[in-house]
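This protein record is not my work; I was only asked to verify it. Would you go through it and say whether the fold makes sense for this chain? Here is the record exactly as it was handed to me.
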Amino acid sequence: MHPLISASELRDQLAETHVLDARWALGRTDGHERYVTGHIPGAVFVDVERDLTRHGQPHEGRHPLPDDAALAAAARRWGVRRGAPVVVYDDDRMLPASRAWWALRRAGLDVRVLDGGWQAWLAGGGEIETGDRTPQEGDVTLGAPGDAGVIDTRSAATWPDAGVLLDARAAERYRGETEPIDPVAGHIPGAKNLPIACVLTEDGRFRPASDIAAAFDGVGATAGTPIAAYCGSGITAAQLALAGSIAGREVLVFPGSWSAWSNTPGRPVATGTE
């Protein structure tokens, strides 16, 4: 199934679709306020920091995945029902929606991301609902994926030996020229830089599948190659995994990402273009 759904398709399927509003941005705490001001009718707010993150130790990174039971409880709290398709959207270039898509897809849900997000819904003349919504408890049962689809710090160290490890951060962070958040600048040795901007258009939509495939091929992440991705804290890496899905590439994610690697004593750091 294609991981994206258009605004017009969602309008036609809205009655039978469970919609999740995942508005979030790093450093901002007003996602729920923006949701209350206006959202897709029937949408339920998802708190990325509370519902899609487990707050652990620094060596686990800034956004480690919630455990399987916590994610299942969150999905039921959102009102997700057994067998109902799920669509996630946001207003930030489909970034937090990609995290939700990736986490829920791992757990076996039928889930897609609204192509173009909230802006596409508005541009298409979609109806708007205001206020908060407390749904009836859902009855969905999620799978328990455990470590499926993810790699840890130890695996990230050796991944370039047999596959391609992609760094989705901006080139200057990869090269170690700047690091605005984490304690050390640079990248995991052997990783290849594929900034997320390379697979997005200027207005924040994903590029055509052929363009995304070419971007992956350009850094050696060809079809059939084992591919894993990381970023700063596991959010943008999920977006790169979604891009890979569009282009027919299975991309594993290192949830701890650079924030975990750089907080783990003794881990080597590379700088420059390689």
Notes: The beta strands are 4-5, 18-21, 44-45, 86-89, 111-114, 164-167, 192-193, 227-230, 251-253.
